[in-house]
Amino acid sequence: MKNSTYAVLFSLIFFSIACKQEKDPGPDLTTQLVGRYEAQYQIVTPGGTLLEGGPSQASTVEIRRKNNNTINVLIAINDGIVQENNRYDAKVSLRDSENDYSSKKGRISSFKVTTENANSSLNVYDNGDVNGGFVYGNAKGQTVSISWF
Questions:
Q1: Prediction pTM value
Q2: Mind telling me which PROSITE patterns this protein's record contains (predicted)?
């Protein structure tokens, strides 16, 4: 009886440890990306018309942490010319790249941000600044590019 009790106890401990390891989301990649950023945008309509604006309080990107490797992105443009409100989740992973397309010095991390219909990147700098952008297709058939530096 004692041996079977120990076997059951050992099995329970083993399975609880295994389940905990499967649920571990890995290192926190998203906390440092959280914030609200004034952005500039370009939108190309299906007819080829280019709409531009920002950076201003009327065009913003807000990034919220969902878990260690997922962010919730809220894009809001309401500048009198364009009204665009979009929200989606995006997966975050470390990006292996030496390229930084801004002239800003002090980059410490670079992240690949992946959604259903787009891949983007974000950079974090030693002073805490975050810059980057998103490109995606909206429900109106337009291509939206929004970025901040």
A1: 0.78
A2: PROKAR_LIPOPROTEIN
